[in-house]
Amino acid sequence: MTATDAPIAGQIPPDSRRRSDPAEMPALSIDGVSHCYGARRALIDINFAVAPASFTALLGLNGAGKSTLFSLVTRLFGIQAGRIAIFGHDIGLAPGEALRLLGVVFQPRTLDLDLSVTQNLLYHAALHGIDRHEARLRAGEVLARIGLADRAGSKVRDLSGGQMRRLEIARALLHRPRLLLLDEATVGLDVKARADILHHVRRLVTEQGIGVLWATHLFDEIAPSDDVVILHQGRILAQGEVVRIVADAKARDLYSAFMHLTGTTPESGSAVP
Amino acid sequence: MNSVIAKDQPAGFSFAQYLTCLNGIVWREGLRFVHQRERFISALVRPLVWLFIFAAGFRQVLGISIIPPYETYILYEVYITPGLMAMIQLFNGMQSSLSMVYDREMGNMRTLLVSPMPRWYLLFCKLLAGTAVSVLQVYAFLLIAWFWDIEPPPIGYLTVLPALVLSGLMLGALGMLISSSIRQLENFAGVMNFVIFPMFFASSALYPLWRVQEGSPMLYYVCLFNPFTHAVELIRFALYGQMNWTSLAVVSSCTAIFMFGAVFAYDPSRGFSRRGPAGGET
Questions:
Q1: Per-residue pLDDT tens for A125-171?
Q2: Does the CB of B118 have a partner CB in chain A at under 8 Å?
């Protein structure tokens, strides 16, 4: 496949959609999803899947449609066209069953700054119907795992940016989801905090078998073995393993492949290599 | 593998889980209220200023004849007390609306809306939580008013509770409906000008409707069709152990309509989805 033959939305080679066991239920499947804001088309015929125990990066510049896609998957927006399912549960038809299997870390902070670390977790647990006793046990468990056990009683507004992000991840895991969505979760963090969070999320994939969809515009967060979905101006330009996308685009690396596929130059785009 | 993944869970939620969710939302609303002492103080000061200053000044100007549920001539302070109780709930309903807009801007609203519980139930819990806070404020006001010789019959403190819950739900649902149509916190000032003040002044909170009718028949009809008038009258009658059936019917109906509208507006496939993502996101 030449660079100009790179798959585009609606023409995705079937063999590039999943590498996992075809009999395995996808953690997330997105089929033919489109979305408009008035006359503006934010997403156009999006098709891809995330396997359980896999790390899939959703790569796109600002304005590509990543957050819109996340809003659709989390049912903040209604689906205008297409179908989204989480472990087979249609988000439109069985939202409760779908959402209970989903953990989300949104791009903007969604913690209550006036509540303590533990109170934020207990509130989230209540929204999932987890009783107080069980919630306290789980809160202690997740806080220990992310290294915030000593800050359990602290007000959230007293935490650093990295700690808040870790807390949001802990909160997203409190109800024991099987799919985790993270929308540019490392934006605004320093290098070490970014690396820690990425490491932690990758461990969730390998140790707990959670499927992860990681939206980002930062290329250094993507490993060669990851699955990548390249989203640009509401369309999927390519998807598959990094090495394959790079090879198909006849590029040196993912950054060059991305620039080539999107027709972006370093001056015109905001992608960070 | 050190798995903590949920195994296949039974479909739906148990009654206990629904209660846990309700407890959590009420608890969080209570904590927020406790953290905002200024909100509590201002919620009390506002009606007390009306009671101590406005009513004292106007008692000579505005004579009140014997009208139900009162069985004798009453002081003007006594007359406006139910209106001030409803005013606390009106402001609280709009305050809840404001906090929902704030939550949406700050992103906290997403935490609520991505819960697997039914959306209508989440909004109803939020409404109940706001109502509980407003009822507490009203009883705190009644306690202070008691020292100002506002002494309804002892049974009235009990019989007024259901009326307060219902009117609190109606005004909270109205606030929720309004919050769904406000895109930015800055736009909330319009709510003060176009909702709170007209609703309060064009009602029977400060003067009986027969007085209004004498002055302006047209304004009388505006007051008559104002749901807030009926919230005030429902509270007024309940405070004296009586029932105003017309007001009960109007307040119940408006509660259902406003709640339905709020659920409709926050349904992702309808009102809420018309908005684009928050600034900076796409």
A1: 999 999 999 999 999 988 988 888 899 999 999 998 888 988 998 89
A2: yes
Contact with chain B for residue A161, Cβ under 8 A: no
Integer Cα distance of B40 and B192 in angstroms: 19
Full DSSP string of B170-200: HHHHHHHHHHHH--SGGGGHHHIIIIIHHHH
How big is the CA angle at B77 (ends B72 and B81), to the nearest 5 degrees? 95
- CB pairs A-B closer than 8 Å: 150
Q: Provide the CA B37 distance to its chain's centre, in angstroms.
A: 19
Comparing CB atoms, the residue among A110, A111, A126 nearest residue B21 is: A126
Query: Which residue from B106, B214, B226 is spatially nearest to B171, judged by alpha carbons?
Result: B226
ipTM of the prediction = 0.78
Q: Which residues contact B258 (CB under 8 A, 6 or more apart)?
A: B170, B173, B174, B176, B177
- pTM for this prediction: 0.80
Domain locations along chain B: 15-269
What CATH fold (topology level) applies to the domain A3-101+177-262? Rossmann fold (3.40.50)
Confirm if A183 and A66 have CB atoms less than 8 A apart: yes
Question: Where do we find the tokens 């969070």?
Answer: A197
CA angle (B234, B238, B241) in 5-degree steps: 150
Indicate yes or no: CB of B269 within 8 angstroms of CB of A71. Answer: no
Q: What confidence tens digit (pLDDT) does each residue in A7-46 have?
A: 333 333 333 334 444 446 899 999 999 999 888 899 999 9
